Protein: C2H2-type domain-containing protein
Organism: Pristionchus mayeri
Amino acid sequence: DDIPLEERCPFKCDKCERRFPEKSGLKRHLQVKHDDPEKAKNHPFKCDECGATFKNKKSLTFHAKVHMRNRHMGELHSFKIV
């Protein structure tokens, strides 16, 4: 397509130049890839699989079910989720 990358993905990481179409994607990227210390202080519960962080253990437990469901779906369809 002819739409410039800057228009398709206007949110740019100032640490690695990666771009995102939505602000939420950039925020998650910063949290997971660059360990935002302010976020870590407010979200002390970290997922061992993807690095996502949460304010409380209940939210982390709920999130972990997504990984379990994805693994289960991968087994059902004979492909590996990484």
